[in-house]
UniProtKB/TrEMBL annotation:
Single annotated GO MF: corrinoid adenosyltransferase activity
Oligomer and partners: Homotrimer.
Coiled-coil ranges (or none): none
Protein name: Cobalamin adenosyltransferase
Lineage: Bacteria, Pseudomonadati, Pseudomonadota, Betaproteobacteria, Burkholderiales
Residue ranges of every copy of the Cobalamin adenosyltransferase-like domain listed in the record: 8-165
EC annotation from Swiss-Prot or TrEMBL: 2.5.1.-
Pfam families in UniProt: Cob_adeno_trans
Length: 187
């Protein structure tokens, strides 16, 4: 699978092209490279979230997701190659059901925030949504298997649920949007 990097600075990208895992050279602004970059950014934000004090089951889940996202990036870098499977999408569905089971029903929209860990989970959610949009754009031009797109869609849902779980684990609650709030008067 792909080449192992023996050195980081190769200068082969100085002209605005980069190499895919299958050896093809493409523009750095190609839809495929944009999608790979969005997946990498999602994974990097999960790395920041993992710096927080998290329940052990959440930590293990996030590490597993990081490996899946690396597989997903690998799949995107090798057109017509499959690394992410329906089983990985199903695993996210199971985690969604598990973590959502004990949460109260929502009656209002939630603002990103609460504990630092929850706020970081919301950042991962937003970046994963952007990654999904990039994959949909790529899929309009080239063949992209459904499992990677489904995975990122489920991941953003899971990060929303996880933010709610992390707010409760941190002793707080969701930050609710207040539709009819009144503006404070200037002092």
């Amino acid at each position: 699978m792909g080449n192992r990097l023996s050195k980081i600075v190769t200068r082969t990208g100085d002209g605005g092209k980069t190499g895919l895992g299958d050896g093809a050279r493409v523009d750095k602004f190609s839809l495929r490279i944009v999608a790979i970059g969005e997946i990498d950014e999602t994974n990097s934000h999960i790395g920041v979230l993992l710096c927080e004090d998290l329940p052990q089951d959440v930590r293990a889940m996030l590490l597993d997701i990081q490996h899946d996202l690396f597989d997903l990036g690998g799949e995107l870098s090798m057109p017509r190659h499959t690394l992410l499977t329906d089983a990985q999408v199903a695993k996210l569905d199971e985690w969604l059901a598990h973590y959502n089971a004990d949460l109260p029903s929502l009656k209002e929209f939630i603002l990103p925030g609460g504990t630092r860990a929850a706020a970081l989970a919301h950042v991962v959610r937003a970046v994963a949504r952007r990654a999904e949009r990039a994959m949909v754009a790529l899929g309009a031009d080239e063949t992209v298997a459904p499992a990677p797109r489904q995975y990122v869609n489920r991941l953003s849902d899971l990060m929303f649920v996880l933010a709610r779980v992390l707010n409760r684990a941190g002793g707080g609650s969701d930050v609710l949007w207040q539709r009819d709030r009144t503006m404070g008067e200037a002092e």
